[in-house]
Each structure stands twice: as C-alpha cells, then as structure tokens.
Amino acid sequence: MARYAGKLRRRACAPQARLFLSIHVCTGRSMNPIALTQFSHGGGCGCKIAPNVLAEILARAPQGLVPPELLVGNETSDDAAVYLLNPSQALVATTDFFTPIVDDPYDFGRIAAANALSDIYAMGGSPIMALALVGMPIAKLPPEVIGRVLEGGASICREAGIPIAGGHSIDVLEPIYGLVGLGLVHPDKVRRNADAQAGDVLVLGKPLGVGILSAALKKGRLNADHYAEMLQLTTQLNRVGTALAELPAVHAMTDVTGFGLAGHLLEICKGSRLAAEVQLDRLPLISSAVGFAQEGMATGASARNWLGYGNQVRWPSGAAAWQHALVSDPQTSGGLLVSCAADSVAAVLHTFHAAGFVHAAAIGHLQAAGPAGVGVDFGGV
Question: 151 to each of 77, 104, 256, 300, how far by Cα in Å?
C-alpha cells in the first residue's frame, strides 16, 4: 500500500540551492515525488475565470428568483449571499474551491479552507458549519495524500470553531478542494461591498504578493522562510471581520482574492458608484514578493486581470512595472479591504492590529465619481 512522507529537499537553483517541500509516495520499489502543483494549470485564486470573461458569462445567465428575504445576491459581485431568517438573524452562504497553490497536501487544505471562510467574515458574519468540496485525480493521487488535504481543511475549521458536516467528491483531472461555508449575521451588521461612502478611508488587512510567491514556488525559487511567510498569511483566518462589523463607521468590506487589489476595489467602486484614490507607497507588501516582482516574476492571472479591468484603472506614468504586477496580483486567502469613515481609521487599525494583522494599513480613500467616472486612481509614486 502506498505511503506518503513530507520531506524538505534541496533542489539546485542558480545561483544557490533552495529548500522546497515535496511529498513522496513509497511504492516499495522507489520513492516518486508528488508535487500537487504539477497537476494544476493554475493555482489558488489565480485559477479564477478572468473578470471580463466572467462578466460576459454571467450576462448570459437567466435572472433567477429574487425574494425580498434575499438581502445580498449577485447584483454587486459581493463575497457571499445573505438571506434574512428573522429580525435578528440572517444566513450567510458562500462557496469557494480551487486547484493547488502549494505542493504539500495538508497546507493546500488549510489554505483552501481559510480562503473559503473568509467570505463569511467579509460580510460581517460568523461561520457555523461547512461542507467539503473535493475533486481529485484518483488514479494519480493515493488516498493518503487526499486524506491529508481533508485533514488540513478540517484543522482550519476546528480553528474557526465549526464542523465540516458533509460534502461532495468527484474524480477529476486536477486536484480541487474547497468548502461551502454557512454563517450567521445580524441583519444590521451585514457589510456589503456596495455601501461605501464618499470620504471613506480604505484600509487593507494583509500585505500583497501571494500570487507572485506562488509563481516563485512553481519555479523552485521559494526558500523555506519565504514559504513559511506565505503559509502564515494564507492560513490566517479573517475572523477580524466580525469585530469590524461591530463598528458603525465601517461602511463596506470585501476580501482581496483572485482579481487582485485593483479588481476587488473596483467592485466596491461600482457597487457604491464612487471613485477611489490609492497611494502606491502606502500599500503593505510582502518583501520577498517585491524582490521577485522586480525580477519580472508574475502570474498569468495577473495579466488576465489587467486585461479585464485595466481600462478602468488610471495608472501613474512614473510607476514601476513591478508595482503594476502587485496591484493585479491574485491573492489567495487575502486580506480584508475596509471602507470606513475618516474619523474611525484609528479604531479600525487598532482592531486589525489587536487581532494579529500587523501589516494592516490605510492605503487611500473614496470620493464622488468625477468626469472620468467610476474607477481607481493610483498615485504616490
């Protein structure tokens, strides 16, 4: 029976050998390395359908029923659906799944689960249970490796205080894992991406650059310290969203994932009919990702994102190309993006920092849309 073992190996990589994590299957005769990312054409939230293509697909979908109890649907591309149950409770429902962003199956499960639950926190809710979504190439991955993916997801759900109460599995060509997440929120505490106000300050909870680190991992360029930082950020639950929703001056929230900072900020702008100004020199960035970006490393999803919404982003002529890559970089289990009243910024930052989000920073503001219309202006070069 096949067995797996997680090992740190050294791979020659100019100019020096670097550490990377791999999984081996022991068949009795030989040890064959299994790197989960070799099965996927994309990884993490970077495998999302490009925003312009997705908009075209959804435009062709028939309009479904919209009962009055449906407080949040798909009208503004929000993070989750919200359905009114009674005057003091609303159900928050979301689903998220993707292909591997890392090679280690346990870590893959943890990242995917944290990413899925983030949508509930972004609405101001608290998760109550989850269902697992599992698609695996059964002929290529042994049960023990698949089991480790499930263990990783279950560990994050335990950290969130919820059970995985069931799920569904299929045999597919690429490994896929994620969750259906269900949560509760008081109807007055729902934080939509369409309720931002002119004059609001934008606060970002996590640094940018996860997509670039995933690209570096696939190229064998990520050392052990870089990997540990990536894992810490992508498995940090955004449960601070529940506390932020208790602040009346927090008007809107979303989480930054596959469409990058620029893409998800555009969703706030469109939903709220506002324009945004962001200072590039205020963005929290993963330092190692900056180094890779300066070398020209980026994901394919970053280019697809820019192709999808670049005409709605006003970019300063003096900005460097690597900065361009970071604002469209697909984030997996990225940080919360908060729109709050200017006089509440200190309280919002304190809430983030007290919850362990040490990189949280104010990055810009929202204003009434001018002649250029709804969009995002980047400055601070």
Answer: 31, 12, 26, 30
- 45's tokens: 């939230």
The pLDDT value recorded for residue 65 is: 83
Q: Catalytic residue among 45, 47, 157, 269, which?
A: 45
What's the predicted TM-score (pTM) here? 0.87
State the fold for domain 45-379. 60s Ribosomal Protein L30; Chain: A; (3.30.1330)
Domain boundaries, the chain: 45-379
Residues 198 and 367: beta-carbon distance below 8 Å = yes
- Specify the length of the chain in residues: 381
Residue type, 244: L
Return the biggest CA–CA distance within the chain.
69
Q: What is the mean pLDDT of residues 134-157?
A: 96
Task: Give the helix/strand (H/E) hosting 261.
Answer: helix 260-272
Pick from 48, 73, 26: nearest CA to 299: 48
45 has catalytic annotation: yes
> Does residue 109 contact residue 150 with C-beta atoms inside 8 Å?
yes
The tens digit of pLDDT for each residue in 247-293 reads 999 999 999 999 999 999 999 999 999 999 999 999 999 999 999 99
